[in-house]
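Supplementary Text 2. Reproducibility record for the structural model of the 219-residue chain.

All settings were left at their defaults, and a single model was retained for analysis rather than an ensemble. We include the record here because the model underlies the residue-level annotations in Supplementary Table 4.
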Amino acid sequence: MVPTARESLLEAAGAALSARPWPAVRMVDVAASAGVSRQTLYNEFAGKTGLGHALVRRDAAWYLDGVERALLSPGGRAERLVAVAEWTVRASQTRPLVRALLTGCWNGNLPVPAGRGVRPGLPALGPGELVRSVRERASAAFAPAQGRAREQGREHGRESGREHGRESGREQEQWAQRCELAVRLAMSYLLAPAEVPGRPGSAELLRLFNGPNPKAEGR
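Retained model, structure tokens:
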């Protein structure tokens, strides 16, 4: 499929950002690299600020798409959470904008999200918003299948089925919490890397995520 002018401009802007600081990126060069006129760039993004905002949103969506792939990958739930943590570290090492979004550490070399002193009232993309988005995806990924829930309701009777449904909901919430923990651990790894370079230890993460949930134990 042939990319649209908007997609080509975002690709060109991303390539330019990987080569030089954002203040040094020129719109005329981005347009030329994308094979479109500068007027087309301004029609799409209204200027450099709009292009920067769109670039941040694109990388946030790219990161969350990777999270979703990890959550839907083969394997047990704990293995999928390890995949989320490893993807978080890998994505942050690959794209500076993802790292800034996850850590909240912005500098003058990067475009900033909309809402950071640009459009009052619009929440800025940042660590809290991304973590909430990850948790929502985990909750959806770990939700029991509706057909299976109905079948269990018939097997256990109406009241027992309701209790089973509540228990399934609690378990779903616990795994969503663990997914949030996976991302937060990966974020801490970004801020304070291990002495030995590389991804977080998969074995250690598996032991952590397969362990009992403290909230569940307290019930």
